[in-house]
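Appendix B. One record, verbatim.
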Amino acid sequence: MKIAIFYDEFRPLYENKDPGQLVLELKDIGTPTKMITIKKDELINYAPPFELETISIEKIFDTKYWNLDPRTRQPFDWNKLPHK
């Protein structure tokens, strides 16, 4: 399982605050995790200790983006999920 946490207000050094700590703790227990946030100038050359994906405001409202399989970046096929 891979987890992505969306936090629109992520800024440099926020890995020391709750949203960043959540990502770091999940990484510590072995869960592949990344932070997704809105593009900001102060994040251009910033390298946090975890994967950080910056997206445009327009992409936040794009349902196709949120429906991508994180492994392949292709549309997620919900029919391939195991049914209980």
